[in-house]
Task: inverse folding
């Protein structure tokens, strides 16, 4: 069974986000992969994952203003 992180890596590859010709020379794929590994290491359940992502997205939205 494919882990969430493996699925992320596969999808990032399919989206060409590791490609040196993509935005930021392929670093977007690497950065998202690093976020995926951190999230995976935290051992979230369905509920805690949703709450964590919601808070993170809210704070990032405020930061990006």
Result:
């Amino acid at each position: 069974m494919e882990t969430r992180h493996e699925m992320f890596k596969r999808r990032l590859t399919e989206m060409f986000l590791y490609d040196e010709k993509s935005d930021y020379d392929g670093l977007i794929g690497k950065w998202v992969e690093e976020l995926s590994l951190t999230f995976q290491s935290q051992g979230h359940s369905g509920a805690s994952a949703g709450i964590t992502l919601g808070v993170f997205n809210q704070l990032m939205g405020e930061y990006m203003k």
